[in-house]
Amino acid sequence: MDRRTVLTTIGTASIGSIAGCTRSDDEASVTELRLAVPPEGSSPYVIYSQAHSGLEDMLPGEGLISLKPGNGHWVATDSLIDGAIELAEVGANTFHAAYNGVDPYEEKHSQLRTIYGGSVELPFGMAITEEYRDEHGVESLEAIVNNELALDFATYPEGTTGEFFLRQWLSLYDATIDDLINWGGSWNPAPGSDIISMFDAGELDAWVHVMPQGHPDWTQLTQSNNFYYIGVGDGVVEEFKEYNYLPYTVERSDEAWQQTLSGIEDQGDMDTVRFYGALGTTEELGDEVAYSLAEAMHEMSGDIAEAVPAFNAAFDEESVTDDVKLGAPLHNGAQNYWDEAGLL
User: What are the sequence ranges of the domains in the chain?
Assistant: First the structure.
């Protein structure tokens, strides 16, 4: 969510055929898609690594999809708006902000909505090392800001969820990422493998991201580092409701979160944000392709939930039929599938 993961449609025929994403030969047609995803280790990358072969099987004609890890959703969104790509993954944790004036996505693009796992609760927050907490005596982001403390922190590459979330969180205290840097800290946007190496080398104090159950980078980090989890708190929850983030509270004793919470000191419940999967596109995508993608993602939701542990934590089938939460408008082809399947 990086404001969006992107599927780029690559036509193998003339420009005129790209709208349908197919090539018509004498014998068969080809639907060829290039799938750009966030960095390796991110939840969308894991999800589409599991899902893309199944999507290929359900596309019209011969389906071909290749994964292309990129730097984040924000860059992908700009490419979509510029017309360079035709299809974007829309994870509704950060990305629902687009429907509330953060960028012009709503004005220029319809939404091809597909659900690959119902919904799941993801904890947003900052994990600081216990050494940093003990040295400075702080247990909140507000305290770090009020005391203008130097903080060396990491997020995934620029444009991904952690950066967007942190900017919104800091704004509640009239602070910015530049302030954290000016106070002697550093921002280190990097792939997960680099973040793990920097923590192991003692170069980082904190990581800002969502921390779903079974996230591979988070699981590896907590094997060699001790963290204190700073939850977002009530003020942030209220602020994020304005962006349709739909916050929830998860009990820390819930068995589904034990792997997530490994290495984090028990501090009561966790404020979280509901996450689901969807695809955004323009009307340039052919109705047949949009229909097939909507059908494939919905029918594969169970398989993906098994492959990605986070989706087993809190599956809510009712969220699939909630227009307000899921966003609109729909691509005509996706609308046809959802109507026929009785999901709207």
Answer: 5-119+276-340, 122-273
In our burial notation (b when 16+ CB lie closer than 10 A, e otherwise), range 100-137 reads: eebbebbeebbbbbbbbbbbbbbbbbbbbbeebbeebe
What CATH topology corresponds to 122-273?
D-Maltodextrin-Binding Protein; domain 2 (3.40.190)
CA dihedral 50, 212, 260, 189 (to 10 degrees): 100
List per-residue pLDDT tens for the chain, 344 residues long.
332 333 333 222 222 233 344 444 444 588 777 676 766 666 677 777 777 777 788 888 888 777 767 665 555 555 656 666 666 665 544 444 433 333 434 444 455 554 444 444 556 678 899 999 999 999 889 999 999 999 999 998 776 767 877 887 898 899 999 999 999 999 999 888 899 999 999 999 999 876 655 566 777 887 888 888 787 655 565 655 554 444 455 555 555 455 555 555 555 555 555 555 566 666 677 888 888 888 887 777 666 666 555 555 444 444 444 443 444 556 788 788 878 887 66
May I ask the CATH architecture of the domain 5-119+276-340? 3-Layer(aba) Sandwich (3.40)
Q: 15 Cβ partners below 8 Å, 6+ apart?
A: none
Collapsed DSSP state (helix, strand, coil) of residue 115: coil
Asked if 141 contacts 169 with a C-beta cutoff of 8 angstroms, the reply is yes
